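Lab intake sheet, docking and co-folding queue.

SAMPLE TYPE: protein with bound small molecule
LIGAND NAME: adenosine-5'-diphosphate
LIGAND FORMAT: SMILES
REQUESTED OUTPUT: full 3D complex as structure tokens
PRIORITY: normal
SUBMITTED BY: R.K., bench team

The fields below were copied directly from the construct record.
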Amino acid sequence: MSDGALALPDAAATEALGRALAPLLREGDVVALFGDLGVGKTSLARGALAALGLAEEAPSPTFAIVQPYAPPEVALPVAHVDLYRLDAPEEAAELGLDDLLEDGALLIEWPERMGGGLWPHALRLTLAPDGAGGRRLTWHAPAAWEGRWPPPPLPHPQPALAPRPR
Ligand SMILES: Nc1ncnc2c1ncn2[C@@H]1O[C@H](COP(=O)(O)OP(=O)(O)O)[C@@H](O)[C@H]1O
Ligand SMILES: [Mg+2]
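RESULT FIELD (auto-filled):
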């Protein structure tokens, strides 16, 4: 288990962190993206989805709530989830997230809407304004992310990952 922080001075840094997250993702992983409206949660998820191979810019799943992606569009099944519009934590149970986790990963915005239902093995990332127009990211990485998070610094630009055989 580890906790830490890093600076994301601009939107490109947020996207680059998302790209760095992509190759770490495995089936069954949950990445919880905490932080207020407009802080960069979707930007980070978009970076990850782009690095997983998604050709078009991922739409914000605010209205769909769950936006699943599957190979060959992306290298690994992954669902981009935005729980902002959830009225009660019990509603999360109806979204089928457990099923999606069986063969894929979840990137979840507004995970606090799940109440205590957020999986304990989730990588918890929190974005906040840094007071200078950028963002500060703090993380809590449980044992499941030992040796994976934080990612090593990336060379730029990053090529998209090839689809993995299933
Ligand atoms: N590190 C950063 N510094 C400055 N602006 C950022 C940063 N990361 C993202 N942004 C910008 O913040 C705005 C909101 O981002 P978005 O990802 O939609 O936020 P959220 O999903 O948390 O509501 C976008 O204009 C995005 O480019
Ligand atoms: Mg968003």
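REVIEWER NOTE: DSSP finds three helices and seven strands in the chain.
SIGN-OFF: pending second check by T.M.
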